[in-house]
Design brief:
alpha+beta; TATA-Binding Protein; Endonuclease III, domain 1; 5-stranded antiparallel sheet; 13 helices; 5 strands; 49% helix
């Protein structure tokens, strides 16, 4: 099926924005995304995109997954002229969208993410899928309920093993209903997520942003902490952006971790 997207939409930037660990480029112009029990291949064409799903699946799953009801171009254009750094970062990151991802997958993935590079996170997540997943999909809590410390250690989880085991148990035994948390306010949601062992402010905010689409939340990792220190004299810039703070965070993260990092690597040769 052929589709057209007129708003900001860049598949390369989306898969490299630090929010998803299983999406990948599988050809010169083709990308694969996985959520729940659905897989999508998108091929970039001169006049739009060729997608591997039916119109019904696109409308009921992927349209929402890519947040296509939100005008990201208008959000970028709303950045005040006096925020020079964000204007530059948003121009570089134009095309990033906040994906609406599976809640259990995001919880486990971001617990794993602590003190790991994005390639290392992807490797660990794929090993978990190979051990417990079915047909290439991220495993359910039930599928991971019998996971052992030894198995998870073999996935490169290190000190995070007990945190993952605890999270799986709590969700599988219905001690925590991840879907029910959606009814909570942003603050309540973050606090509930922090009740999971090994989940601090950053991980909780990442899960809230990328699994619950709480776009007013802006996770602060080492890249963003550096931005706050170096570009904003230690003052958090995100409250200024209200309900779009998480989108602005993604522009900054992408600019620092991909564009600036790439420029520095290039400069060394």
């Amino acid at each position: 099926m052929k589709i057209t997207i007129t708003d900001d939409f860049d598949l390369d930037k989306i898969i490299n924005s630090g929010q998803c660990f299983r999406a990948k480029k599988i050809g010169d112009d083709t990308y694969r995304f996985v959520t729940g029990d659905k897989t999508l291949e998108m091929t970039v064409e001169p006049s739009g995109y060729l997608v591997s799903c039916t119109k019904k699946e696109w409308d009921t799953v992927w349209h929402d997954y890519f947040d296509l009801d939100t005008d990201y171009c208008a959000i970028r254009n709303s950045i005040p002229e006096d925020d020079d750094f964000l204007k530059i970062a948003a121009a570089a990151g134009a095309g990033i969208r906040i994906l609406r991802q599976d809640r259990f997958e995001m919880l486990i993935s971001f617990i794993i993410s602590q003190r790991k590079s994005i390639p290392a996170i992807r490797t660990s997540v794929e090993r978990i899928v190979s051990l417990y997943g079915r047909d290439g999909f991220f495993p359910t809590p039930a599928a991971m309920a019998a996971a052992t410390s030894e198995e998870l250690t073999s996935c490169g989880l290190g000190y995070r093993v007990p945190y993952v085991l605890s999270a799986v148990r709590r969700v599988y035994e219905h001690e925590v209903d991840l879907d029910a948390l959606d009814a909570l306010s942003d603050e309540e949601l973050v606090n509930e997520l922090k009740s999971f062992a090994g989940v601090g402010d950053k991980v909780a905010n990442c899960v809230a942003l990328f699994a619950y689409h709480r776009c007013a939340l802006a996770p602060v990792d080492t890249w963003i902490a550096r931005v706050i220190k170096e570009q904003y004299c230690g003052t958090n810039p995100f409250p200024r952006y209200g309900e779009y703070a998480g989108i602005m965070q993604q522009y900054m993260f992408y600019y620092m971790s991909v564009i600036q990092r790439s420029n520095k690597l290039t400069d060394t040769f």
